[in-house]
Amino acid sequence: MKVPVSVTVNGVTHAVEVEPRLLLVHFLRETLGLTGTNVGCDTSQCGSCTVLIDGEAVKSCTVLAVQADGRQVTTIEGLARNGTLHPLQEAFWEKHGLQCGFCTPGMIMTAVDLLARNPNPTEAEIRHGLEGNLCRCTGYQNIVAAVQHAAARMKG
Amino acid sequence: MATIFGTPVKRREDPRLITGQAKYTDDLVEPGMVHMAVVRSPYAHARIKRIDTSKAAQMPGVLGVFTGKDMQAAGMGNMPCAWVVPNSDTKTPPYPAIAVDTVRYVGNAVAIVVATDRYLARDAADAVQVDYDPLPVVVDAVKATEAGAPQLHAEAPKNLAFHWKVSGGDVEAAFKQADVVVRETIVNQRLVPNAMEPRAALARYDAATDEVTLWVTSQNPHIVRFLLGLTTGIPENRVRVVAPEVGGGFGSKIPHYPEDAMVVFASKMVGRPVKWTETRSENYKATIHGRDHVQEVELAAKKDGTILGLRAKVWANLGAYLSTASTGVPTILHGLMLSGVYTIKNIHEDVYGVFTNTTPVDAYRGAGRPEATFLVERMVDLLARELSMDPVEVRRKNLIPPFTDGYTVATGLVYDTGNYQAALDKALELADYQGLRKKQAEARAAGKIMGIGVCTYAEICGLGPSSVAGAVGFGGGLWESAIVRFHPSGKVTVMVGVSPHGQGEETTFAQIVASELGVPIEDVQVVHGDTAQTPMGWGTYGSRTTAVGGGALAQAARKVKEKARAVAAHLLEASVEDIDYADGKFFVKGSPSKAKTIQDVCLMANVAWNLPKGMEPGLEASAFFDPPNFVYPFGAHIAVVEIDPDTYEVKLVKYVAVDDCGKVINPMIVEGQIHGGIVQGIGQALWEGARYDEQGQLLTGSMMDYVVPKAEFFPKFELGATETPTTVNALGVKGIGETGTIASTPAVYNAVMDALAPFKVRKVDMPLTPERIWRAIRDAQRS
What we know:
The structure holds two protein chains of two kinds. A five-stranded mixed sheet of chain A has the order 2-1-5-3-4, sandwiched between helices. Chain A is α+β, with helices and mostly antiparallel strands. The radius of gyration of chain A is 15 Å and the shape is globular. Chain A is built from five helices and five strands; from the N terminus they run E-E-H-E-E-E-H-H-H-H. By secondary structure, chain B is an alpha+beta fold. Helices cover 29% and strands 24% of the residues of chain B. Chain B has a seven-stranded mixed sheet with strand order 3-5-1-12-9-10-11. Chain B is globular, with a radius of gyration of 27 Å. The interface between A and B is large, with 59 and 60 residues.
């Protein structure tokens, strides 16, 4: 039994019918073809699937698509505006904040939320703020540097 | 232009990765694609009495349910072990992709289901009914070799896959001469690699042509293609293997896995493209693990700290079956490295490879060298403690002196180049070692628990000379290949046999070509990971991509340059010997104003209107590089820890790493590799560890139960470097992918044991959790 939902993803509203058990991350990846959001675990530890729901960082593997009904979802694909990278995307590139790139979309979306709540974080606050996102490649040092760099740029 | 080599060029991989446009295997969709789910054994050891697929087969969307017998009936072969170590009497029992009559570890596949949707496939997999007859279980490698232990394979009595030995010098005599002998039993625990991208495989079989394409999360698509020919019976020239974007591997994506063969089989059976993506819980059970050694070690020395000999007996847990490269890891990549960076003239080691009812063990970042380095570095520290010497002084006393033309260690390896003192001195200076010791004395006086740990290391990588690969039983060569192709417009495509998956060689390889040939770096495209587009190569592991693949690339680029020089000479009406080259331009010696750019030359070579007599058109070269030796990067790491006196939690307060990987192409990327390696190595020391219960259930079966290190666990690392080029390849580069992992585990472990020295604690098994430290202190106080 499918149920109707209307979810706005990156500014585009999708009114579709979905299985009640469909996870938001599979709705994004398989129903909408937005494969930038990755699935790295099945226990909400890794954060690879992090997206914004109404501006707040959420692990989309732990949300049902039906729970996103009527809400605004932003994925990594929706972060750049008019071909201009978001300062966090720029900073991850500039500071070598990624290697295999698999955790990166989730890491960046979490950092967007982090800087929205705390535009001027200390190194310790950044490290703590990223506790829900795992990276196996970078050792985090350059991710932290990227978030610091973006914070400085976003302050202007 | 020449300055491109050695500069922190931003990575060209990144734009697609930071915008979500990159395509990993699970992102791919083929027309008509369906999904596979795997039914896995909940028992560690059991006979399969009956598999009832009837209910699952009738469920919505199900296209087929298949068992191991179905795969055998279709002529599918067993999973091969590609590394059979000589002089070890290695047993390679049958390893069917899907178990046929016996399961030997939790997670062993027993059936597969193909359905139109991921969720439906999972539902149907849960409806497959399997009756098991449980058998006795053994998970511990030492116990598995004892009399009366449950037996896994009829072919391997006492569960021994092999017994391999390495000897150099006269170890018995060394121990007789010794003033002091230190002994320790070291447990180098089992780890779960945890690449962030789980494994996935998508096969499209085309019945019309009997061809198959397999997209797979692999570090070495050419090896998978080679082996897939064996497991599926489809001739290699009808198999295309593509490693698209791959989300990290750390060794766990080297093996040719059962699921690779399963999706090919399934696609053939249902006539549609079939995709399988593992869940993380599946990954913990069905993707290889790493390490898992028990080592009994003795070190003989003189009173002044001079090491005379090293003797060890190692039980290497290989899991239930031999994975692709498993046997080479605890032998060649471990046993041969027991001299470390020291002049240990007498070495003997016995390695027992043991089958147990656990997930197969294979190469995990460092692969054998962490197990060797930890062993040596721990024993050196124990010797220092025994003799009341500073651990740095014991190291200095035994370090191999600087060398530039090879140094032969007791195990027979010839290290390429090294200057271990320089790296150690730099690390001591960066860390202010003397200052740290003063601080430690003050901290101890104030009741604090603080420790300083040192590790000096060298490691074997850049695998390796093919003749050696053959001699050590590796079932392939270890050379690399590259094609450099100039298009008429002067744009360049580079095709390489290696298969980077996060290390950034699309960038560093473009830097090599831009530096060698003077073309703008943006004009160089690097293609890898697709057997239909790239020449044969053995893949990305063993820190070999740049040292060997880059060596092949430099060689191909230099061949192109020589052809271009001949064309330029013709165009400039001069003899080839009179042509000079600088920054992408060819000119007659002494008159640089009348030059032909490489693009001019390229255009003429391609239109071929006016070439030297007899010259073939085109500007392209292919090169195969078989390195004359391995490369041996080295360095010194220093860790400082504080232990909370109430909770016994270890806090890493400072970490200094000095690494020498020879010439550096891109320092930003090199530092990134070191950072990541350090975190993985510290993970082993402090938090990570796979644990089984006696029944073979994996207690650490997900990221909820297994600690993958987080950002807030670490301070900012301080990095330094020395530069000792290798002579093994044209670029002078060594590998840097694994050094951090190799050096950081002993550095941090030694720091913690240094901190605990006042409590008379000299050993705590890793990971060094607060509970284990508390117990060790309590036990030491009681005795």
